[in-house]
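New to this. Explain the following:
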Amino acid sequence: MVFSCVCGNNSLSPEGLVEHLRLHHTSDAVINHYHCRQSPLCAGILFDNLKKFKDHLVRKHSGDVGGAPLGERIVADGDHIEEQVEQEVENEVLVADNQPVYFDTFAKAVYDSGLMFTAKLYNKDTIPRSAVQEIVSFTQDFMSGFASLLKRKVMDTFSQIDDLDEAVVQEIDDLKAMFGILESPFDELDTEAKRINCFLDANAYVKPEKYFIDSRPAPIQRRGVMYREMVPAYGQFVRMRTTLKLFLEMPDVFDKIMENVANLAAENEVISNFVQGELWAQISAPFQAEGKIVLPLFLFTDDYESNNGLGSHAGDDKVSAVYYKIPCIPKEFLSVLRCIFVAALFYANDRKAYGNKKVLEPLLQELEFLEREGILLHLIDRTVRVYFALGLILGDNLGLNAILGFVECFVANHFCRVCRIHRDELRFHLEDSNNLLRNEVNYNGDVGLANSYLTGIKEACIFNNLNSFHVTKNQCGDLLHEFEEGVCGYALPLILNWLINIRQYLTHEAFIERVSAFQYGPHESGNKPSTSKLGPERFTSAKFNLSGSESLCLTRYLGEMIGHLIPSEEPVWEYYLSLRDLADILYSPFFVPGAEILLRNKVREHNEMFVATFNEHLRPVHHFLLHYWRHIRSTGPLIHTSTNRYESKNREGKIVAYSTESRVNIIVTIMIKAQLKTAFQLLSKNIFDLKFVGGARSNSPARILPHFQTFSQTLNIEGNDVVSCLKFVEYAGTTYGIDSIVVYDVTENVPRFGKIVSIFVYNNSQLNFVLQDFDVLGFNNHFYAFAVEENANILCRHPAQLADHQPLWLRYGARDGAKFISTRHAF
């Protein structure tokens, strides 16, 4: 039996393969786990350490005949899961299990393993750096104890052998030195300073820089005497040029980004990314005229509480964070947190005390450098200079108004960043006007007035110093705060109060039962509205105290929850359907040219119905909707400018702060941890890998799969071929399970649905879904869901072939048992 490694080396036993992996592939294995490829029965099985992998090989494959390469990474490419590992040798070489192991090779393997071991610990948000030090020390003690005993035993044994030749003596000396390595495996990594230096040597760590903001007089106590001295305020900054260079020089990253940009530029029928919008065409034109390669950057700014938000020290150490990302990376990774980087951290109180210019000065200088000089990338086959232009600055409205120089109060006369409308006019304003829009000319005039009461501008935006940016063109919508928590937050209590308390179509108890017992499915169960926040007293309040995801979930599925109890002619229900229709458009990840006119009309219809139905005036969040049609034309789909994922990035910093007892220079603690997490990703060198990870599995002949005869010829599978059946699989960050509904195609704007009846892997690595097809009977507007029925068609699809990556769920009508599927966005 030959046990093969993907690098081409073969071993005659599991022990030999494990030894080879330990010596030559330690760092890769720690990152990617070990994948058994010896048999189709084991396709996709993961082992997180060599011992488990070896035990599996001995137990399952010692008697096998033949075999496939072992220990390779699983990634996706089109319809197949293919290996993407660099071949170390071109031809297979059969290596005996007793091949010589040299000291240098062994020492490097231990060092690489230790480096990745510590990097993996640092990557865990809940493990403080002090705990990492303890783990390293404990592991060092654990290893040195038995390694010393084993060393003594082996050396004593050799000492009893006489007449050893010189070569054997040299081997014994090497063995003794190897034991010395095992006695102190973390000798080069036993302190954090050493570990960080090793990360620096590996080009994986970008050291944060402390920068001076300003100073203020503060009381200082020395030997019991109180003095007043000038105390400096500092922020933390990471050079974007260095992080971007390391990121883009990772294998395939730059090429995949440029390939994606080229594909987006060639696509004229669908707009799905910022680089297809009008704003990027204007920004990139000067660079392209000079033949330069330019990529856009998104900045995001937000404040978060590093202490207990309800505690006595709330607000004392509130942190302001600035993140950035490249918005034109492949769509599968747009929401991945590891592709969002930290640029700066400072205290929120320092920004209020010293102003935007002082706290953001190093960030502005860095953006100017990237725009003017760019960075030089040393790729495998060429050297490329890449420039970067600031595309958008994102954030919630309060944060953006603060950092861009507008008034930080939404009862001010002119709080809107896009237009100059007065607050009294917007209460019943149904359509934005070109005459009211801010532009460079009237903006400069308003700045010159230096009167925020009349203009809504406190100070000139410091980012206007960049050639590629002007604040009046920073058009972006924040669906989380403006629509989910804003528009839906205001609308839901009004809708439910009318239906339950005034019209009495159902009782409050019946509504709570419907919310509690609704079939959310595994993909929406985490967004289930909290019934404790839906008490009777809440219906008369201005807003529900629900999170954005809970408000959106209730808005999406209210039609299926209680629609059967509401008559179709009910005016409030007609307003709900208008709100639901608007949500479907806003959350679409793509749109066709001209769709902005449809959105403009839908927003006008929604706002008009809100005023007429509830006799209420419009809030600021309703006014922000009026500009959305301009946003999508200028900057692309709104879901890419929403703050949801950046808020998740905030959570990483909060966890680090909560797991640390000290509050001395908490921004330093958070920043170092963020850079150590980035170091782990840079060391992994697989940031754009599309892996699939399977759940519980069973192995069986292909012929017993449901509907085997239907797809066997298409996939060229024989009945006796062994396949691995999975209950669920995670692919590109999305989990698919049995009974999940997927959209496998779109025909004339109507989605085609399929229910996953089985998930299997065959031929070692090919992942497929077996789908039960549905006929779409029509769209039930009252429930806002598609009525469907199973047909006799069976389909087979790889997840990359699906028309939409978001899984859905099949639900049954409350009265007649009809089958319905609700989509999350319009097609």
